[in-house]
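Let's practice the habit of predicting before peeking. Look at the sequence and jot down your guess about where helices and strands might fall. Then scroll down.
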Amino acid sequence: MNEFSNEADRDFEEIYNTYCNQVYEFIDATTNDTEDTEDLMVEAFVTAYYAWEQFKLNRQIAVSDWLMAIARDCCENPKKRQRHPLS
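Done guessing? Here is the structure:
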C-alpha cells in the first residue's frame, strides 16, 4: 500500500467510528433481524469504503446523509449485495 492509501484508510476509519452506531440503528430498525443487520452493515461500509475517494472529490452532501443513502440502498436492494466480494 502506498502512503495515500494509508491516509485514506485512516480517514475512512474515522468515518466508520463516527457513524457506525447511527448506520447500525437505521439498518436494525429496517430489518428487525440481528443477522441481517450485521450483514447489511458490512455491505454498507464495504460499499462506502470503495466509494470513499470518489465521494471526497465530489462531495455535495453530508457524510452522514451519504452513508444513510448507502445503507438504505443496501436494505432496499438485497439483489445488489455482494457487489464487492471480500474474497
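How did you do? Confidence is low (pLDDT under 50) at residues 81-87.
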